[in-house]
Amino acid sequence: MTRLGLISEEDKKLDSILELSTSKLMDRRLQTKVFKFGLAKSIHHARKLIQQRHIRVGQQVVNSPSFMVHVDSEKHIQFAENSPYGGGRPGRVARRNSKNHTEAAEEE
C-alpha cells in the first residue's frame, strides 16, 4: 500500500487502511497520471494513448489504462520511443504530407 502511495509510511494503521476511498485508488491509475502530467488532452485521450501503446513506464510499454503506478515509477511515465509522439516513426498523415512536399519541390 505504501509503494502505491495509498498510505504514508508513518500511517500504517488499520484506521488509515479503512479510510481509503475509491478516489485515492483511481488517482493511482496510469490513465489518470498520464492526464495529470499533461501528456494527454483529456482522460479519454489518455486512455486511447495507453491502449495504442504510446505510453511507457520506465522501459516497459504499458497498454492497460488500469495499471497501478508505484510512487517510484511515477517520474518515469513518458511516451514510448517508437511512438510518433515520442520522436519515433512519423504517423500516417505526417508521412503523406512530407511525401507530397518533396514531390512538389521536385516538380519546381
From TrEMBL:
Keyword Ribonucleoprotein recorded: yes
GO MF term set: rRNA binding; structural constituent of ribosome
UniProt keyword list: Ribonucleoprotein, Ribosomal protein, RNA-binding, rRNA-binding
Region (Disordered) residue spans: 79-108
The RNA-binding S4 domain, residue ranges: 28-92
Presence of the UniProt keyword rRNA-binding in the record: yes
Matching InterPro entries: Ribosomal_uS4 (IPR022801), Ribosomal_uS4_CS (IPR018079), Ribosomal_uS4_euk/arc (IPR005710), S4_RNA-bd (IPR002942), S4_RNA-bd_sf (IPR036986)
Any one GO cellular component localisation term in the record: cytosolic small ribosomal subunit
Any one of the GO BP annotations: ribosomal small subunit biogenesis
SUPFAM superfamilies on file: Alpha-L RNA-binding motif (SSF55174)
Family indicated by similarity: Belongs to the universal ribosomal protein uS4 family.
Name of this protein: 40S ribosomal protein S9
Lineage, opening ranks: Eukaryota, Sar, Stramenopiles, Bigyra, Opalozoa
